[in-house]
């Protein structure tokens, strides 16, 4: 089965995908593929807020400089300035669309909405909706999308690949529906908004993390991947080995939370003048060191000194969730550990979201714009989603009006069969082993020896997967194949970076190289013998 050609096909329905769909749909037809599991994706779990220069006491240049410092020399300054300069307008767009941001009720408030401060920021510039900003934004935009006559939503599809014509242009996507029937979605332009690759790791900050699917879809069509080695680990995820993942927002430290070791002592004071508000890579490594030195497997995040009233006011969602897990954060500290949180690398794009493949765009966490450099600063992620989605939509609205006729494409449809129960168990085992390898050897602290072991083990896992009968015709097998290849590319990128910078810390290369350079990879780098 197939659908008529749409002007824009958007794959992924978090903040980036929803924003682009709404911005473009007033002028163009949009098909939005938003799997039901997107309700558990990264956007909806974003707690802290969105960074932008909104207070008269702040400045665009200050936000730029804070971002450049956090990015540790690897940011693209033009991308930083582009993002920061367009931030206030993006926030006003959300306000105009009805996002219920938390007001500032103080008599001397300098801005109508409450602004908090998070790690790396030297000013209060985080606008938020209590401590559930992502959900507030997604819910608001979803209501708008549902009512828009030019947006066709598909929640019944799993995208397996992108369509490409004989001239190399992306022409949409293909996948299977819930009955394992093929579906093609032709489009004049295709936008990936599929999220990052935190699902390559065992411990993450979202219950259903993305596995980098969009990155591999783009790479398979010829797009370039950039800075894959820079995987951000959020310093404070709730420690509960037997329960689901849950992020403890950066805003908890922004409002004055203390990190304590097993002895009940603050340890950040001696490591960085910004203490608990140091950038995430600094805090995550410090926590990891304390965990390695101790016996309890976590550290403590303490906000009891803020008082019950402030805790209930600022962190109602976190308080309620922790209480449901048996922790009253008004009376006891929160056990926390670092967990895979955000992919600073992804599909290389420009300020329009364009990749090097004609007709293919990427926005949000799946993309690498150069904004984050070697370390994403807190709450710059949703800002990036908004700014680049709006920029991409504007560019497409201008471009499509001048495009020529469509070019035909061909697609060989192989049957996709349900996975037998015994094979599902094998796929689950391979997936768990993949995540274990990445968590052990390609995590917060890395070494040449560990990366070599990881690469060898991933090659063996891929060989085992490919030896399984029918794995290339089963949905789970195809997705696992994509995960393994992206993991291999991530390890290759890490092995090639002979320095420690930002999120990437190597015991064999503890110092900076004199000049920071972005890493760029393609599928050709999976060929044996190309790794250096």
Please give a structural write-up:
The chain starts with 5 loop residues before the first strand and ends in an 11-residue tail after the last strand. It folds into 3 domains: 10-229 and 344-400, FAD/NAD(P)-binding domain; 237-337, Alpha-Beta Complex (Flavocytochrome C3, Chain A, domain 1), CATH 3.90.700.10; 422-526, Up-down Bundle (Methane Monooxygenase Hydroxylase, Chain G, domain 1), CATH 1.20.58.100. Strands 1, 2, 6, 7, 8, 9 and 16 form a 7-stranded mixed beta sheet that branches. It has 532 residues and is an alpha/beta fold. The protein is globular, with a radius of gyration of 22 Å. The mean pLDDT is 91. It is built from 15 helices and 20 strands. The protein has helices at 15-25, 42-45, 60-70, 77-85, 87-96, 133-147, 213-220, 250-254, 280-293, 308-314, 316-324, 380-400, 421-441, 448-467, 475-496; strands at 6-11, 30-33, 50-51, 115-116, 126-127, 151-154, 157-164, 170-177, 182-192, 225-226, 231-238, 258-260, 299-302, 334-343, 346-348, 360-362, 367-368, 445-446, 505-506, 520-521. Belongs to the FAD-dependent oxidoreductase 2 family. NadB subfamily.
């Amino acid at each position: 089965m197939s659908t008529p050609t749409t002007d824009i096909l958007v794959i992924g329905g978090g903040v980036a995908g929803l924003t682009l769909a709404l911005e473009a749909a007033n002028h163009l037809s949009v098909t939005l593929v938003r799997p039901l599991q997107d309700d558990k994706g990264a956007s909806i779990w974003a707690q802290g807020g969105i960074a932008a220069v909104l207070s008269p006491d702040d400045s665009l240049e200050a936000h730029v400089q804070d971002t450049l410092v956090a990015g540790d020399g690897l940011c693209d300054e033009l991308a930083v300035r582009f993002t920061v300069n367009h931030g206030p307008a993006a926030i006003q767009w959300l306000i105009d669309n009805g996002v219920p941001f938390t007001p500032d009720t103080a008599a001397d408030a300098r801005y109508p909405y409450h602004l908090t401060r998070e790690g790396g920021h030297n000013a209060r510039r985080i606008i938020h909706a209590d401590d559930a900003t992502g959900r507030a934004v997604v819910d608001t935009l979803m209501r708008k999308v549902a009512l828009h006559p030019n947006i066709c939503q598909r929640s019944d599809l799993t995208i397996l690949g992108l369509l490409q014509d004989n001239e190399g242009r992306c022409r949409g996507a293909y996948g299977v529906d819930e009955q394992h029937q093929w579906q093609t979605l032709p489009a004049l332009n295709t936008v990936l908004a599929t999220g990052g690759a935190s699902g390559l790791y065992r411990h993450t900050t979202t219950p259903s993390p993305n596995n980098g699917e969009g990155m591999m879809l783009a790479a398979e069509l010829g797009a370039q991947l950039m800075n894959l080695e820079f995987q951000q680990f959020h310093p404070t995820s709730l420690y509960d080995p037997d329960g689901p993942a849950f992020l403890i927002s950066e805003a908890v430290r922004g409002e004055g939370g203390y990190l304590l070791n097993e002895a009940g002592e603050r340890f950040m004071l001696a490591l960085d003048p910004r203490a608990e508000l140091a950038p995430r890579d600094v805090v995550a490594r410090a926590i990891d060191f304390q965990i390695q030195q101790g016996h309890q497997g976590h550290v403590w995040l303490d906000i009891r000194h803020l008082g019950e009233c402030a805790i209930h006011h600022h962190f109602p969602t976190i308080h309620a969730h922790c209480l449901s897990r048996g922790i009253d954060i008004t009376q006891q500290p929160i056990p926390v550990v670092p967990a895979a949180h955000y992919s600073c690398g992804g599909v290389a794009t420009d300020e329009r979201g364009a990749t090097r493949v004609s007709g293919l765009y990427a926005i949000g966490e799946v993309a690498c714009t150069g904004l984050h450099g070697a370390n994403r600063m807190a709450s710059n992620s949703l800002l990036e989603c908004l700014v680049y989605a709006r920029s991409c939509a504007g560019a497409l609205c201008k471009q499509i009006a001048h495009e020529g006729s469509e070019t035909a494409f061909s697609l060989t449809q192989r049957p996709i069969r349900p996975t037998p129960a015994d094979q599902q168990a094998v796929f689950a085992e391979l997936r768990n082993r993949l995540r274990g390898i990445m968590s052990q050897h390609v995590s917060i602290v890395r070494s040449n020896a560990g990366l070599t072991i990881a690469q060898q083990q991933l090659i063996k896992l891929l060989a085992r997967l490919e030896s399984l009968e029918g794995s290339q015709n089963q949905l789970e097998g195809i997705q696992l194949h994509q995960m393994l290849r992206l993991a291999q590319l991530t390890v290759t990128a890490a092995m090639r970076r002979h320095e420690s910078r930002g999120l990437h810390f190597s015991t064999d290369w503890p110092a900076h190289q004199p000049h920071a350079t972005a890493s760029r990879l393609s599928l050709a780098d999976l060929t044996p013998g190309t790794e250096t």
